[in-house]
């Protein structure tokens, strides 16, 4: 299996955000259009939504993400649920 560089990780974009990063179609977004996870032989990921995992002192240490093989868009309720789940992950850590 091929190894991906951290620079190819879509989550590396999400941890720079204060809120959810949603890429409705990875092939239409400049950050991901040429990423091998989205258009290569490794995968066909077409959707990404990630909520940053932020420590109590404000450091982003990762992201909780959802992926799909087809484009989509989160509803407001789904966005809120992803935020709640990210906070729950941080409580568990």
Any idea what the radius of gyration is? 13 Å
Q: What is the ordering of alpha helices and beta strands?
A: HEHEEH
Form type:
globular
Structural class: alpha+beta
The side-by-side strand order for the widest beta sheet comes to 1-2-3
Tally of DSSP helical segments = 3
Largest sheet: 3 strands, antiparallel
User: pLDDT under 50 segments (min length 5)?
Assistant: 1-5
Measured between the Cα atoms of the first and last residue, the distance is 30 Å
Strand content bin: 15-25%
Number of strands: 3
> What's the rounded overall pLDDT mean?
84
Which range best describes the helical content: under 10%, 10-25%, 25-40%, 40-55%, 55-70% or over 70%?
25-40%
């Amino acid at each position: 299996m091929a190894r991906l560089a951290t620079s190819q990780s879509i989550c590396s974009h999400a941890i720079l955000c204060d809120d959810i990063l949603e890429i409705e179609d990875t092939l239409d977004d400049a950050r991901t259009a040429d990423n091998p996870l989205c258009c290569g032989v490794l995968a066909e990921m077409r959707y990404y939504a990630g909520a940053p995992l932020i420590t109590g002192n404000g450091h982003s240490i990762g992201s909780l993400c959802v992926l799909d093989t087809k484009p989509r868009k989160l509803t407001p309720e789904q966005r809120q649920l992803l935020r709640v789940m990210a906070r729950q992950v941080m409580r568990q850590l």
